[in-house]
Amino acid sequence: MKKTFDKNNIKIAAFDIDNTIFHEGRINEAVKESLIKLSNSGVTTVLATGRMHYGIPESILDLGIFRYAVLANGAFLFDFEKQTSLSKRPFERSAADKVLRIVDSLTDAYFAAFESESILTPKHLELLRRNIKLEVTKDGSPPVEIYSTYENTLAHIAQMCEPIYKIGCRFDSVEKCAEASLRIREECNFEVPSTDGKDLEINPLGIHKGSGTEILCDYLGRDISSVIAFGDSGNDVSLLELAGFAVVVDNGQDSAKKVADYIAPAVWEDGVAKAIETLFKT
Fold first, then answer.
1. What is the pTM assigned to this prediction?
2. How would you class 269 by CB atoms within 10 Å of its CB: exposed for 0-12, middle for 13-18, buried for 19 or more?
């Protein structure tokens, strides 16, 4: 049953980044203006993304309206103003090592996200950049790659002593991705959403954007029913289901659209801006 929008009930707006408010390396001006206007109206604007804090586009942080973020699909919560974490829910290292060995046997395109950096295989970086472009720079200079790659990625990850917050991988086909998802669920019983059907984002069971946003809501003294969530893909579903109201852009995955209360135009049509204007009458 679709939830009814009540402007007076909404205290927090949680935004996915990639292909929701950020596309082709930029956030459009209309979306920027709508987000700032919403924030100025008294709604607390937060990010809810699979990215880590070091991977948030500068053009989004420069808006000055996102103090808090639910990162790594809920495994890491961050306060940008204080530059400190609010919650950390990493893998148990033995569990992370197990799933990494499985992933390594299935594909040569994968990564592990640490608090300090994300380590990618060269193949994963290549495929990632086909799907998500680097941020367009303000001065037109070439964008700088923010992720590190290593030929023997598994060995390099094994040498790092930091906790792992998220593991991801990519495949050449939807079929191979689905097979890998089934195997990982059977052998490890983890959260394994997909953002585009050919990738997997792996977190420990119970750790997802929905549970991460609940923790942030507790910290802010709010209930998740007072959240309006904006997303587009499989890793947004948990939050879309728990939020007081769920908006999905029209370019989103069917799994996200099925739980949406409102379908906005596509990201390249400034869908989030138009949804905010329509719902909040801004």
1. 0.96
2. middle
